[in-house]
Amino acid sequence: MERSSTPLAVTIAVNGAARPAAAGATVQSLIFELGLDAEAVAVERNREIVKRSDWDCRILEDGDTIEIVHFVGGG
Amino acid sequence: MNAAQRERYSRQSILPEIGVAGQRRLLASRAVVVGCGALGTVQATLLVRAGVGEIVLIDRDYVETSNLQRQWLFEEADVERAMPKAAAAAERLRKANSSCRIHAEVKDMTPQNAAALLTPADAILDGADNFAARYLLNDVAVKTKTPWIYGAAVGTRGSLMPVVPGETACLSCIFPQAPRSRQPTCETSGALNAATTAVASMQVCEALKILCGRPEALRRRLVTTDIWSGETGSVDASRPDPDCPTCGRGDFQYLNDLSRGSASLCGRDSVQIAAGGRALDLPGLAAALASLGKVQANPHALRFACPPHELTLFPDGRAIVKGTRDPAVARSLYARYVGS
After folding, report:
1. Of A52, A53, A75, which is closest to B152 when you measure between CB atoms?
2. Does A9 touch chain B (CB under 8 A)?
3. pLDDT digit string (tens) for B105-142?
């Protein structure tokens, strides 16, 4: 039997596209890495919204499905 | 329903989603549309034709040539007559459905008048063009427990979300505050009429669920769509956040801050807009406005000419709008070129 070890990277899906994330990466670091304006996006992880105040403590796990939507203001 | 109504709405009441009972409720309902621009004119058209009993159209602006590309209900003659948008929209819609009671409110929505303008309503539709108006709308809707449908569009992209206060997330649950960075507006980034129309249509669909008595069918998600690329996305908005500043803690920041973004006469033909708590990135703004008119900028101020008006913007968010004595005109220009 193969022994599992802590992976150095995980694979997540962001808006349907697979991408690697460093082990220990958080929602906050993902938003930073994607170059997004934190105040202008909302994030859902595995079909549940992640409050902005939780972004820096929510660690991304292998297989996580992340949806990011932008806050639009025109009309 | 009488015979004329049965005939008029036959293709709608035959839908199992609406039914005769739903149509009856719709005929007795009252909706409020905030903003008569690209979103609001489509919302109002669909609601009036669907048979909403009473509708209030709120807008502070006048019809301009650049509106005609995407703002249904307006014609070239409205530009020539400098018709207020709400009045022009009401005039057109009365011809489309003479049984609907249509009220035009040619007004600037402020913390002082927002509650009186927006309520009572069975549903409020967001057709505003700036973040501040949306947070003010959210404050009033949450406070009075009135359902509303957030919606916005710019470029080829738009978003919408139904808000049922106490049941679903409100705007502040998802976005605790308006972005402080400069965000694209239709003036600086354009707007595809197919995108604004699509978003307004989807908003009306959600509103109809409320007005026809089918709230269980609401999409309890914040939905975003780019109509050009076909990309869509959504996030969960089904539950209120207990820590939400607005619906959780009852802090109605926009409704209570009577001085926020307030406009006052200063000088002979100028209006000053008070700082709204958001710093302005003057170099970024200068770059965005350069293609739209003459811009002069230094670290202390930015002057932008949009004849017959001139905007002078300061880093703290304050502005002086020259060429008008009307606070509504000044706030409208600020929302268009600066955001909110």
Report:
1. A75
2. no
3. 998 898 999 999 999 999 999 999 889 899 999 999 99
> What CATH code would you report for B3-236?
3.40.50.720
Is A42 touching B (CB cutoff 8 A)? yes
Please indicate if any CB of chain B lies within 8 Å of the CB of A35.
Answer: no
pLDDT in tens, A17-46: 999 999 999 999 999 999 999 999 999 999
Cα dihedral across residues B45, B36, B157, B244: positive or negative: negative
Of A39, A52, A70, the CB nearest to B180: A39
What is the ipTM score, two decimals?
Answer: 0.88
Assign residue A25 the CATH number of its domain. Answer: 3.10.20.30
**CATH no. of B262-337:** 3.30.310
Name which of B156, B163, B183 to mutate to probe chain A: the one with the most chain A Cβ atoms within 10 A of its Cβ.
B183
CA distance B298 to B98: 55
A72/B127 touch (CB, cutoff 8 Å), yes or no: no
Axis-axis angle for helices B193-211, B19-27 (nearest 10): 100
pLDDT at B186 over 90: no
Asked if B253 and B139 count as a contact pair (C-beta separation under 8 A), the reply is: yes
Binned at pLDDT 50, 70 and 90, residue B260 comes out as: low
With tokens 């033909």, the residue in question is B269
